[in-house]
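User: Please predict the structure of the protein below. I'd like the answer in structure-token form so I can feed it into my own downstream comparison script.

Assistant: Understood. Taking the following sequence of 278 residues as input:
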Amino acid sequence: MSNKPKKPKKLKKSKKPGVAATMDALDLYERSVQNPEADVEFLDAIFNDVKGRKARSLREDFCGTGAMCAAWVKGKNKRTAVGLDLCDDTLAWGIQRNIKPLGDEAERVKLLKKDVLTGTKEKSDLIVAFNFSYCIFKERKVLLDYFKKVREGLNEDGAFFVDCHGGTDLGEKMKERKKFDGFTYVWDQRPMCAITNQAIRHIHFEFDDGSKLKKAFTYDWRMWSLPELKDLMVEAGFSKVDIFWEGATEDGEGDGDFIPMDTAEEEQSWIAYVGAWR
């Protein structure tokens, strides 16, 4: 069983030589997809609000470059972080780019080549699996086994968080572009299978000189629904499961503020957090 959703393909030279041939796909991914500081702020606030204490230890499953591990310990001298992933190259990149620059704080971070289905003996206050990484598990039994293993890895008052993507656009074929400084991020979504919920997604990067880095990342997922995730987490033994739904601005865009909700109207596209309390 592989759990390497963030491993990039080798850089491909475009037919028109240019910027793309010199770019680092992992760097582009971090700049366009991840916002670990915001994730850490959310987790810190929710855990403190529910448990009445500060979370000290974090385990990041499918950690890739360990960006969240780094953000978790930075400037917080009592925090520790462990990241699990199976890709040697990605872990090595993350150690050089995200962990070593922490200086002395790097001693409180461990990035391990380890299968998340095995977990760790070391227990944590928080375990996270973000960027829909758990969607590589397409069989219900396998995902349930993973959730059970996560619960074993938590402290008695610990919590497990994942993110979930849904909406009426989920099964559609589409390409979405977002402009960043020096490049354009392209989300290439292929039609989802109505019977299995299998979905293929690609990330491409395009540059101002016309060169492209195509299929820098490819994902073969089963898109799990919120009711499925809740049922599986309860079956895995978690005492409570909360859904954190994103609020909206006046123009209908997400405002980045996630609050617990029991019901919500379907939208074209949404992202929610799921929190399972041990």
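That's the full token string. The CA atoms of residues 30 and 221 lie 20 Å apart.
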